[in-house]
From TrEMBL:
Principal location class: membrane
Keywords, comma-separated and alphabetical: Membrane, Transmembrane, Transmembrane helix
Protein name as annotated: DUF423 domain-containing protein
Recorded topology in the membrane: Multi-pass membrane protein
Domain of life: Bacteria
One Pfam match: DUF423
Source species of the chain: Halopseudomonas salina
TM ranges: 44-63, 75-95, 101-121
Record's keyword annotation contains Membrane: yes
Length: 124
């Protein structure tokens, strides 16, 4: 599981940087400010949670059987897909209704952080 999460983190880091550059250079003059801000928020959350995903993967190298760390990593991946993905889709398509997905990603992030904390409490 640690290897999978590290691979997903590397992919997410790569795409986060690429999307950040695309937003800063390719979308700056093409999107209204509110949609560009939504896109940039997606990038920021993706990159911050990618770093957390790497940390969880490293914890799994030490505690490979930790269900809490595994669940936390899975929830971070889901959160990145739902939260950042919905913001990207909304910004690029202009379909504001896609924003209804975003809170589910935020909830995944919150649950991931709770599982991480519970795992740290249990194992450290």
């Amino acid at each position: 599981m640690a290897k999978l999460l590290l691979l997903l983190a590397s992919f997410s880091g790569f795409t986060g940087v690429a999307l950040g550059a695309f937003g800063a250079h390719g979308l700056r003059d093409k999107l209204p400010e509110n949609l560009l801000n939504a896109f940039q928020t997606g990038v920021q959350y993706q990159l911050w949670h990618t770093a957390a995903l790497m940390g969880i993967a490293l914890l799994l190298l030490r505690w490979p059987e930790s269900t809490l760390f595994k669940v936390s990593g899975g929830l971070l991946v889901l959160g990145i897909l739902l939260f950042s993905g919905s913001l990207y889709a909304m910004a690029l398509s202009g379909i504001g209704r896609l924003g209804i997905i975003t809170p589910f990603g935020g909830l995944s992030f919150l649950l991931a952080w709770l599982c991480l904390g519970a795992g740290v409490w249990r194992h450290l």
